[in-house]
Specification:
Elements (H helix, E strand, L loop, with lengths): L2 H25 L5 H10 L4 H21 L3 H22 L10 H19 L10
Helix pairs in contact: 1-3, 1-5, 2-3, 4-5
């Protein structure tokens, strides 16, 4: 697999994670646990609306990733959001997470993939073979 193809596949995989979590889990409410987590952290009164807004933000993140606009900023924002979100969930709602406190390990793997894709995989693309 060429560096360009590898980078492109990782980019779409990362965008798919954001899209699936935003659209299916939150906006379409196919995973009610997400709203329960929001209710636990931010309160039950506005949890349904906030869950949908968070989901819409995740969909926008997927579109931002695909657009390749300001990729470095996008990478930093993704890493920051995933890290903060998972630390907060680890502390305030571990019983609602799919893998409990182990969720933070999956978040760390995702952060490493995002970091690698921008700061390493992208750097190995030649000018004659752009993404």
């Amino acid at each position: 697999m060429t560096p360009t193809v590898k980078h492109t596949h990782l980019t779409y995989l990362i965008a798919a994670v954001w899209l699936i979590n935003g659209l299916f889990c939150k906006v379409l409410h196919l995973v009610p646990r997400h709203e329960q987590i929001v209710a636990r952290i931010l309160g039950p009164e506005y949890a349904p609306l906030l869950t949908i807004l968070i989901g819409c933000s995740e969909i926008l993140m997927a579109l931002w990733i695909i657009s390749r606009y300001k990729q470095k900023l996008n990478t930093v924002v993704q890493i920051t959001v995933v890290a903060l979100m998972n630390i907060i969930e680890f502390v305030l709602a571990p019983d609602l997470l799919l893998w409990g406190r182990l969720n933070i390990l999956f978040a760390l793997v995702f952060i490493v993939v995002v970091y690698y894709n921008h700061f390493f995989a992208e750097k190995h693309i030649t000018p004659n073979n752009p993404v």
